[in-house]
Amino acid sequence: MTRSMPRLKVRLAAGVAALAAVLTPVGLVTSADAGQNSTRTSVDAPLIFGHRGASGYRPEHTLASYDLAVRMGADVIEPDLVTTKDHVLVVRHEPNITSTTDVAQHPEFASLQTTKTIDGVTQTGWFTQDFTYAQLQTLRAVERLPDVREHNTILDGRYQIPTLQQVIDFAKRESRIYHRDIGIAPETKHPTYFASIGLPLEPVLVDTLRANRLDKHSADVYVQSFEEANLRALRRTYKLRVHLVQLTSAGPTARPWDHVASGNPETYAQMTTPAGLREIATYADWLGPDKAQVFPLAADGSTGAASPLVRDAHAAGVEVVPYTVRPENQFLPAQDRIGTDPNAYGDVLAEYSALFAAGVDGLFSDTPDLEFAAREDFLGYSYGLDHPEAKVQ
Ligand code: G3P
Ligand code: CA
Predict the structure, then answer these.
(1) Mutate which of 324, 325, 371 to test ligand 1's pocket (most atoms within 8 Å of Cβ)?
(2) Which family does it belong to (predicted)?
């Protein structure tokens, strides 16, 4: 999971090595040609970030979800990070594990149910920081969106909560198996909150990356945060050399939680102006905006022309990986919805196409296979009748 090119030229994913050989005359550079460990094209192309793995098809943040994401062509898999009571970094979208595990079915943990306020939101449930890692290992993941992705619920109760180390081990193993680099994009969740309870995420994250020899810019590692201060600290205090991704939200008044906590009035909207982006470039390499910051939503839920965000970020020297493309109608812009069932698939390929055309450098996606297909279209490859292999009788 270490790559030697600072800006990736697209790595063709599993199952397409033969296709790469076919396409070499029109611009592909194979691993042998390039002296790389993976097959690459000679044109820039957006990276596929498997959002929480392939969470459209598997309970999120499980090794099964990451495994499917890689098989579907993801270049990078995304573990969101929280911590246990004994300071083990584990992979969950939030510390409250009530809706993504079977913890409520474990009477031995009933006494750990509690109410906490995290980043201004009061919630009741079970929280990772009240469990030891050994205790968390006894739980199993369940589908977060059972009403939307009912098909995933058949896999409820099968998979454990992975640690960051297990995800790194997995990515290294998959990189060897598939002869291509599988990156990781760990996201520090609620860093100000976890520091406030004596369980900061950053020291363990840095130690883990260094122990795995991943603290270098050539590593396929993208550390994300919706906060600013911990990214600055990772770069300047910890001197971490991996790619850093400043995540931003679309709301007009939304602010990073560390800004709220410190009284800094700067909003995400201000951070994503040309001047704000130049400031981000002083400590981060990537911007991870809400896709609605690239294609703002009209009152009817449709999108029109792209905002200048991608152009402005590139002008500041920052690459752009928006989140999150999901295929169900309820997550798509109005013009891409098909029918009226909010849980049915719409024309998600149209949304991918629009975002690729807007110049993004990567996309977080719950369905890496569909992003892969859209990227093939974007690159001008075809699996249709005009494909060279289709002519073989
Ligand atoms: O990290 C990109 C995207 O995952 C941010 O949103 O809430 O899914 O972690 P979230
Ligand atoms: Ca995330």
Answers:
(1) 324
(2) Belongs to the glycerophosphoryl diester phosphodiesterase family.
